[in-house]
Amino acid sequence: MQNPQGLRELTVRSVILGGVITLLFTAANVYLGLKVGLTFATSIPAAVISMALLRLLGNSNILENNIVQTIASAAGTLSAIIFVLPGLVMVGWWQGFPYWVTAAVCALGGILGVMFSVPLRRALVTGSDLPYPEGVAAGEVLKVGFGSSAGSAENAKGLRMIVVGSLVAAGYQLLTYLKVAAEALAVPFRVGAGATAASTSLAMALIGVGHLVGVSVGVAMFVGMLIAWAGLVPLLTWGEVGDNVAGVVNATFRSEVRFIGAGVIAVAALWSLFRIIGPIIKGIRAALAASQARQAGTELPLTERDIPIGIVGGTIVALLLPIAGLLWYFSSGTVLAAGIGPTIIGSLVYVVVIGAIIACVCGYMAGLIGASNSPVSGVGILAVLGASVLLVLVYGHGGDPEQTKALVAYALFTTGIVFSIATISNDNLQDLKTGQLVGATPWRQQLALIYGVIFGSLVIPPVLDLLNKAFGFAGAPGAGDNALAAPQAALISSLAKGVLGGDIQWSLIGWGAVLGVALIGVDEALRAGRKLRLPPLCVGMGIYLPMALTLLIPIGALLGWLYDRWADRQASPEFAKRMGVLAATGLIVGESLLGVAFAGVVALTGSDAPLAVVGPDFEHPAKWIGVLLFAGGIGLLYRAARRTSAG
């Protein structure tokens, strides 16, 4: 397809290339999300790779490359569904991930997310001053790449930085698989009559995540970590510590502290919704006005042509039928099968209403702090709480164990559909912002987003199944020592079990809500004073994620801030900063892809440590070797980024 200026936009090769890049970034995001509970935005690296490859094919342009990054980033973002679906394995309902059922959950929810975000483009992209950090950055990358011959050279350097970062991270990760270098460090200790712990995962991907999320988010997560581990854990273990210090600390964190974090996230997510109700209503009105103008024969500018609102509404209604069929199939053969019809109807209403609300919240949060920073898992917490409470109103709670287990699974499955809406809404508007900056046609880009959803839906199930067979998930039946943490899925499934089983500690969530209100007040005061922000959602993330998964993120944010300060003093600051971003992205991609490959080796051999070349007695030296090599590798990578930027 071509625009009136003769530039090809939505082409066959752009769709194919977007699909190929999807395979890499979606697999990387699935692994990263299950391991550390975070995913990364793929727009910028996808744009860099796309420009480098399409230049080899010839006759490429900025709009065609924009389609590639749109497809790849949509599919990569959809991988955040792993924050919910592994819960079905954790509660013992699934033993693996049925391919077509899993793909259908991702695809149906994802396409709904695209439809819900169409009217939001006018409200939150063209009609607001939200910064859209990743969308703007991706747009600048595309414009620079096609603005001059120097842009081509910059793209080549950018691709090289992704490769270098990937090799550094993969190299260290390989050493951990060989057991020559440590994978994590942890020290539990007493604090008065209580106890706590200090721990970190030696995962270079976390440094990359920290660089990408920025210093405000890094500081907020560090504050949350301090609240959890320097305050709540010692307080809640006071007088309860026996000989097993580590066991008491871990149990307290899992069963109490994380629910306080959930309360913080829930309140912060609701506050975000409250702030954007006005712009959302204006955007819907603008979309309806544009539709009426087109029907009256008014010629809209190319850059204002969305998918017509009538088609959007019709698609949403049409998707309800396969969603109903999917819910019926999931519940068939269970204790819920008899009389499931009214429950399915109620679920459809819930998916549409809550899905629309969540699309608004996620779109706003992504526009404010970026898709990588937006704690979409907090929205998942609200969604599963809502679904579980509604099921309690119909079926009650704390009754027959078999029925309770089926209800928990049904709540998680329904939340999975809603969460697919959330993940795509969390990314769509970033891509549409990029399109606005480069002069793309919105409806073509929205169609590309649907292609991205379909590609991602096809890739996610086998990767999930492979990782489940190789490692399993912490807390799932039969999980081993190397099980992936899947922290969000663990928390969301725990909430569903608590609500439907009747044993959830609402007091902990309530205290978290009170803390969330206080944090909102602090953040608003900082906003008014134009000081460093302290996003309460990110503080909540710092509270409920294990320290091993959060400590390096603030460190990465600090390193990124220091690097950016250096970049500001260079002749081409934006180029220098972009090299840092791409190096950080390489850390994530390299470690994650090697992790997926290693999962295949584990699945084939049946061994938890198939590559180990040393025994358990090497554990202590491995810690020192790990710390030294980890620090050295990060230092060398940033040095390479600086030399590339200055060269």
TrEMBL record:
TM ranges are: 12-32, 38-58, 70-93, 99-118, 158-175, 187-207, 219-239, 259-277, 309-330, 336-364, 376-395, 407-426, 447-464, 542-562, 582-604, 624-641
Q: Is the keyword Transport in the record?
A: yes
This entry's Gene Ontology molecular function terms read: oligopeptide transmembrane transporter activity
Q: Please give the GO cellular component terms listed in this UniProt entry.
A: membrane
Topology in the lipid bilayer is annotated as: Multi-pass membrane protein
Can you say where in the cell this protein is located? Membrane
**Keywords on this record?**
Membrane, Transmembrane, Transmembrane helix, Transport
Q: Which Pfam families match?
A: OPT
- UniProt entry tagged with the keyword Transmembrane: yes
Using the record for this protein, list the coiled-coil segments as residue ranges, or answer none.
Answer: none
What protein name applies here? Answer: OPT oligopeptide transporter protein
Q: Which organism is it from?
A: Lacunisphaera limnophila
